[in-house]
Design brief:
Structural class: alpha/beta
Strand order of the largest sheet: 2-1-3-4-9-8-7-5-6
Shape: globular
CATH class: Alpha Beta
Distance between the termini: 34 Å
Order of helices and strands: EHEEHEHEEEEEHHH
CATH architecture: 3-Layer(aba) Sandwich
CATH superfamily: Class I glutamine amidotransferase (GATase) domain
CATH topology: Rossmann fold
Largest sheet: 9 strands, mixed
Number of domains: 1
Strand content: 25-35%
Helix content: 25-40%
């Protein structure tokens, strides 16, 4: 398996995904957009594309002109029938690359909050009916054309979506470990401004190890689903 990773910040890495990839002897390459000369690979150089999170906005093309190239690259990977997983910013990139709008949420969602699965579409990835997950986002998106809506939360209607059999966007973070959570807190603590859906650093640090183990196991299911080619979608989304 050849996997290419789009990384937007040094403190937002693969988390538990790295362990999954190592266990499958995957060949992993990176485009690190925080480096001076980031380069995107040819489409035939990888089978699976993973777009990670980051503190920037997908709308910040004037300040970060590489976003234009990245979005074109993501759209091309989708058209080429690659397996594509987007996480937080990565999900927003997929949505925007496929023509959907990305914009600020009414309220930021930062902390451990539940998401609820939408009605199941046969063949699409099946999230648990309710699962508490790690969030750190202040923007949301409209669903791309023909996307299947997979999950929502009290703070954010569009939490997860699927396009075709092989493309998944997750607004929340299933890859997060306690170590990577601490890295995000250390670098983005200024965003922890009191709100209905914003927890404190102390609340983050009080989360038990079992919570991380649970979301990491769910990430494993997501990766397995995409790695084996996704599902046969047998009904159009409502």
């Amino acid at each position: 398996m050849r996997v290419h990773v789009l990384q937007h910040a040094p403190f937002e890495g693969l988390g538990c995904i790295a362990t999954w990839l190592h266990g499958r002897n995957a060949s992993v390459s990176y485009t690190r957009f925080f480096e001076s000369t980031p380069r995107l690979p040819a489409l035939d150089a990888f089978d699976f594309l993973i777009a990670l999170g980051g503190p920037m906005s997908v709308n910040g093309e004037d300040e970060l002109p590489w976003l234009r190239d990245e979005k074109r690259f993501v759209a091309a990977a989708v058209r080429a029938d690659k397996a594509v997983l987007g996480i937080c910013l990565g999900a927003q990139l997929i949505a925007n690359a496929l023509g959907a709008r990305v914009y600020p949420e009414a309220e930021k969602e930062i902390g451990w909050f539940p998401v609820h699965a939408e009605p199941r579409v046969p063949g699409a990835f099946a999230l648990p009916s309710k699962v508490e997950v790690f969030h750190w986002h202040g923007e949301t998106f409209d669903l791309p054309a023909n996307a299947i809506h997979l999950a929502s939360s009290a703070a954010c209607r569009h939490q997860a979506f699927q396009v075709g059999a092989r493309v998944l966007g997750l607004q929340f973070h299933l890859e997060t470990t306690s170590e990577s959570a601490n890295a995000i807190i250390a670098n983005c603590a200024h965003e922890l401004v009191a709100g209905r859906f914003v927890q404190t650093a102390d609340q983050f640090r009080a989360v038990p190890a079992a919570a991380y183990q649970g979301i990491n196991a769910l990430m494993g299911e997501v990766l397995e689903y995409l790695a084996r080619g996704g599902g046969t979608i047998r009904a159009a989304p409502s």
